[in-house]
Design a protein that fits this description.
555 residues, alpha/beta, single chain, 17% strand, six-stranded antiparallel β-sheet, elongated, six-stranded mixed β-sheet
């Protein structure tokens, strides 16, 4: 529950700090005194968008601090998830600057606006004074029934499920256009890959073929020249290089007996002879292996021509054809994967639809199950709120389940008869402004248990109510205060008298205007109730009436 509210330099409030009790707290004050500033400050504390001029004139910043008891499991879970949990008390402080971004602190640690908005949804539920106007909207009526039926979490799931279906269907629609293109491209790519398979190029093949063709073209020259050189070096019957070197080696061997320094030169010359012999044998072998087959030349030229033609198609060097084949395989696999994804879209959509229908069915079952109970509760409240003989009904109209709407299978419409014998009809057609305000209060009150928040704030939701009905509204709010903390801004003395605690908001105007917020004691409450009863002129009779109302309210 809300324990305290501390406001500093906010609009007309220099500083105010008030402590809140359990039960029903009523906030009163003259018209224009600034009662709604209390509610607005709570909204800002929980992340509402700020407006220009919110900081008190002459100040750099405004500060709003709220202290709550953090027993709500959802609150504790959020605090722990954000590493902000420090115990059973939660302190939220927001600093609003004129020229700098706002700052937010939770339990002394910096936090984001989204964090305090999320926390606020678990701590307080604020009902504004013009909220009954939104009651005429079908979406609002459906939200109220779903809140009572306990559908909130499943509705969040249904919204996500509906989005998944629509996104997948949109993707499928786009995919149908892409599918034809992918299939055409894939056919071309596979044909191209078939050429690679037929040709089967290997690494460096073109360069090797080029060398082979060069050998075949000069086969006669290679064969004859290699043969001549090998003969001249070793194989000729006439004088050869090898023979000459052998003769020279013998001569030097003989001379080395006379001069030992010649021996090293002899060895070198002898080694040279051995090398010449080796070269001669290798050249002779090469000459023997030289091929001269015009048919082979034609085959090589044909093969090279085919490699060049495929290389031109793919704009690569002929030796790079194996890499081009690998790249083509990757393109084919990419296209096949895309087509597989497109094929899977239908099965994905069916899975999403199955998930949607499971959730929507649960929501529909709860709606139908809760309808009669909700109708009876609102009808009962109507009898106590000055609409004796009134009837409240809910019309659930089926929609096509294959539309996969984010709210499920039914549209919800509230129907009402506010007087005996009056034909039942839509709220906008039957209820007057005052009746609509009272119906709004009844609907909000009936939905409170579903809200599961510890503090409920009503900002002048009792407009258009008076007399005996106002007293009943006060008793209703007081009864609610036994289970949750209720804060109600009111202009009705009948409601104010039912409060367990009363605060007064007053405006003081001298050189400048300031607003003060004070908790009233016994005599101060009597005087405030008397003011609400009698206006500017307060008589002894008004005082006695106020005392009587307070006494009855306490009882």
């Amino acid at each position: 529950m809300l324990k305290s509210l501390h406001i500093k330099n906010y609009l007309l409030i220099p500083e105010a700090k008030v402590e809140f009790d359990r039960g029903l707290t009523v906030v009163t004050g003259e018209t224009g005194a600034g009662k709604s500033l209390v509610v607005d400050s709570l909204k800002f504390a929980f992340g509402a968008r700020t407006i220009p001029g919110i900081v008190r004139e002459g100040c750099e910043k405004a500060e709003i601090t709220v202290t709550f008891e953090a027993h709500n499991p959802r609150t504790v879970e959020l605090l722990q998830a954000n590493n902000l949990y420090t115990g059973s008390t939660c302190i939220i402080r927001r600093e609003i600057f004129i020229a700098k971004p706002t700052r937010v602190y939770v339990n002394g640690s910096s936090a984001s606006l989204q964090t305090i908005r999320d926390l606020g949804s678990t701590l307080v539920d604020i009902h504004g004074q013009h909220e009954h106007h939104t009651l005429l909207k079908i979406a609002t009526q459906r939200r109220i029934l779903d809140g009572f039926a306990g559908n909130s979490e499943d509705l969040n799931r249904l919204v996500l499920s509906s989005k998944k279906i629509r996104r997948a269907e949109s993707d499928r629609s786009e995919a149908k256009h892409r599918k034809t293109t992918y299939e055409q491209h894939l056919e071309i790519l596979r044909d191209q890959y078939g050429l690679f398979d037929q040709l089967a190029p290997v690494k460096s093949e073109f360069t090797d073929l080029k060398k082979k063709l060069l050998q075949l073209t000069h086969a006669e020259e290679l064969s004859s020249t290699l043969g001549e050189v090998s003969l001249g070096l070793f194989y000729s019957d006439e004088s050869t290089v090898s023979g000459t070197l052998g003769e020279f080696t013998k001569q030097l061997h003989r001379l080395s007996d006379f001069d030992s320094s010649i021996q090293s030169h002899t060895e070198l010359l002898e080694e040279a002879k051995f090398r010449v012999d080796d070269v001669a044998r290798e050249l002779r072998s090469l000459a023997d292996r030289v091929e001269h087959n015009p048919g082979d030349m034609a085959d090589i030229e044909q093969r090279m021509s085919e490699l060049q033609r495929l290389a031109r198609i793919h704009d690569v060097d002929p030796d790079e054809l194996p890499s081009a084949k690998d790249a083509l395989q990757i393109k084919i696999e990419t296209h096949e994967n895309e087509l597989a994804k497109i094929a899977n879209l239908d099965s994905n959509i069916e899975e999403y639809k199955e998930e949607y229908h499971k959730i929507a069915s649960r929501i529909s079952d709860r709606r139908k199950s809760a309808t009669s109970q909700f109708e009876q509760l609102i009808t009962d409240h109507m009898q106590n709120l000055g609409m004796e003989g009134g009837i409240f009904k809910i019309e659930l109209s089926d929609i096509d389940p294959e539309q996969h709407e984010s709210f499920g299978y039914e549209n919800t419409r509230f129907l009402v008869s506010t007087n005996p014998g009056q034909a039942i009809g839509a709220l906008s057609d039957v209820a007057s402004g005052g009746e609509l305000s009272r119906l709004s209060l009844a609907l909000q009150v009936t939905s409170l248990d579903a809200a599961k928040v510890p503090t409920i704030v009503f900002d002048e939701v009792d407009v258009g109510i008076g007399g005996r009905v106002a007293e009943r509204v006060g008793k209703l709010l007081q009864a609610l205060g036994q289970s949750v903390q209720i804060i109600c801004i009111t202009h009705l003395p009948q409601v104010a008298a039912q409060g367990d605690q009363q605060m007064n908001v007053s405006k003081i105007t001298e050189n400048t205007s300031i607003v003060e917020v004070n908790v009233l004691d016994g005599n101060q409450r009597v005087n405030e109730i008397a003011r609400m009863l009698g206006g500017a002129k307060i008589t002894d009779r008004t005082i006695e009436h106020a005392k009587e109302m307070l006494a009855q309210g306490v009882n």
